[in-house]
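Hi L., both proteins are below.
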Amino acid sequence: MDELIALARDLAPEPRLTGGLLAAALERAGWSVLRAGTGTAFPRVWQKGTLRAGIQGDGPGVRLSVTLWWREVEEDDEDFVVLEALYEEAEAESRRVGERLDESLPGAHPEPAGGDPTDGLDYLHHRAWRLTNRTLLVGAIQHDNGLPVFVEAVIS
């Protein structure tokens, strides 16, 4: 959680995010490059301890996604009861992280983000805050029909 808050504080005053700016912030904070693609301007996948961060997009729509929690289900356990329990666990973790952030974010009372901070993604649960020039979203999501289910924080 402290790593996420440090990144949010570091990026809050930036007027515009770029992939290079996000990569530099991760490097300053002591993250390691997990995967660097050949021919890319900056590494897209980073790691610090058990956390993974991904720089997504280019240009004005770039964002930083930090995976805080994830669970996988064995292929032979893909029945609805197992998935429903996993969704409930992810939602509970998302709520717990959101409550911790409410207590830890800069400023006396972090302002809820307006509009639709999800970029059209279908989160199982999410909360979002406005931090100066940034939006911080925490939510539980399954990115497609495959597994795993994640709790991620997105700075955009």
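That was the first. Here is the second:
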Amino acid sequence: MITCDADGRPRACRPADEDLRVVDDRHIRVALWPTSPTAVNLERGALTLLIATAPPDVYLIHATARRLVGAAMIWAHYELTISSTELADHGTGPQAQPVRFGDAPDTRREILEM
């Protein structure tokens, strides 16, 4: 999850899996520590970029955030409204076949024996 600080510097945040929840095809909820730089950025209306992997693809999800009132515990809860999604460019030439993580040979034993 990437937002921008007030000075334009990008800020990366990796919410824990249990802190993200898909509500429907246009909304995702996220819980953040309320004083974290990302929460501060969302409070001032910064746009959000979520990067999601679904091997072999990577998706860029653009969203705007709205703070949810009455959040449980001390977390700041936000609902992200998805404005657009796109398949990330791999930055390389075309591939004849998509790369799949599971297709790589298991070389752990050979590496451990070195």
